[in-house]
Every structure is written in structure tokens, then in C-alpha cells.
């Protein structure tokens, strides 16, 4: 399987993995995720060992572990003690949802909740955010964090990361009124698609304090990466919701073909 990875990662440029012009962490992260998405490694398959990946990409073990940790947090991979790292059984089974439906869900949620404790800073992004937004080593981002409350009860801790050229188009007043996902369109950024992941996690100290729950309480974790029409990632969202106060609703319908009608 490692040989097939080499061939697949070489691409038409003939330069091999090491020739990819991107930060090393991003190179490993994107390549591994692509191999899961395109079926090179199917649900339940074991991926190469850390030493094999270090040799393949020409990077340190710390870099490989960082990429695997990010993919594990996003639900693509799972570590099994003493056995290795495997593709999650449901990792490559995505489902489509119209981008306008997602926008409507975000707007609807914002309409019935209020923003509390909005904090906006310019920071050097963590590795996962840098990879998700495809940033260079020296690029910084705007991080905006706020709590969503419903009838004064905190139900969600929302953190958004956007490139600085995008952030400069939006004012603090606008951010206090509308989600960044809605504001993107209003400042001339045409959104084409988004990758969204939903999983479970436990409340850390910061989340527990913000959401008025105990440390270790179950939370719903939603992450979303938004892309513009040029397929540039323009926003990364990490939302933590109280499991006892938030439900994610999707309507499932059956589309009948002409031959299915009765």
C-alpha cells in the first residue's frame, strides 16, 4: 500500500511528495486526508506507521503526529493503542447538504440566540487551522470567540478563524450581529462549498466556564471549513455545544426517480 501512496502522491508534476510547495505539516495533513477521501485507504484500513510516513514525506515524527492528531480530532482517523492508526469506519462516508441549507441553518440559529462575550484577536494560528486555511508559515489570522445564549442560558462556544484580508472587510459591530458565514457574502466573498464535521468531545476548562457546565461534561463538536468560488478556504469554525441544550436537525427525504413512482 505504501508503494501505491508514492505513486498517487507524485502526481503529474513528477516532483514527488517533497516537491509540494507548502508547509510540511500541511503537506502531510492534506495528503493523508486525500488518501482517505479518495479511497486509497478505506474505512478500517491501517495507514502507514509514523516512521514510514516520516521517511515518505521527509519530515520529523513530531510533524507526522501533529497531522495525525488533527485528522483524528476531525474524525478521519483513530489511534488504537499498540496496533497503529486506522481509518474510522465512517470517515469516508460523507453526505451532501446544499450550501444554502447550511446558511439557512446558521441564520436560523443566530436569529433565536444572542451573542455574549465577543472577543476578537489577531494571532498566529495553530497547526490545524493553518492547514485547514492553507496558510503560509508567516501568515496570521483573526480569531473571534463568542458564546451563544438562548434565554440567557449559554448553549454554544463558537470560535471562527479567518485570513486577515477577509477579516478586514468585516466590522466588530457586524460580527456582534451576524455569523461570519453570513457576513462573507455581504462583503463580496462568494461561497461555493463547505466541509463540515460533527462529533463528540468533553468540556475542557475554558469551555466548561463559558458554557456553565462541569469540566468533562459531554459536548457536541462541530467544525466547518468554508471555501469560496476559487476553492480558497476563507473560514474555519469550531463550535462546542452543550449536549443537554442543543440538537442538530436534518430533514431526510427520498427522491423518487421516474421509475419509482406508484
Give a written overview of the molecule.
This protein folds into two domains: about 1-85, Winged helix-like DNA-binding domain superfamily/Winged helix DNA-binding domain (Arc Repressor Mutant, subunit A, Orthogonal Bundle); about 100-240, Chorismate lyase (3-Layer(aba) Sandwich), CATH 3.40.1410. Helices cover about 35% and strands about 25% of the residues. It contains ten helices and eight strands. It has helices spanning about 1-10, 25-35, 50-55, 60-75, 100-110, 125-130, 165, 170-175, 180-185, 205-210; strands at about 75-80, 85, 115-125, 140-150, 155-165, 190-200, 220-230, 235-240. A six-stranded antiparallel β-sheet has the order 3-4-5-8-7-6. Strands 1-2 form a two-stranded antiparallel sheet. Strand 1 (about 75-80) and strand 2 (about 85) form a beta hairpin. It is globular and about 50 Å long. Residues about 5-20 and about 255-260 have low confidence and may be disordered.
Brief sketch in words of this structure:
The chain has 262 residues and is an alpha+beta fold. Helix content is 34%, strand content 27%. Residues 4-22 and 257-262 have low confidence and may be disordered.
Distance between the termini: 47 Å
The mean pLDDT is: 82
Which strand order does the major sheet show?
3-4-5-8-7-6
The number of E-state strands comes to 8
Q: What percent of the residues sit in helical stretches (DSSP H or I)? A: 25-40%
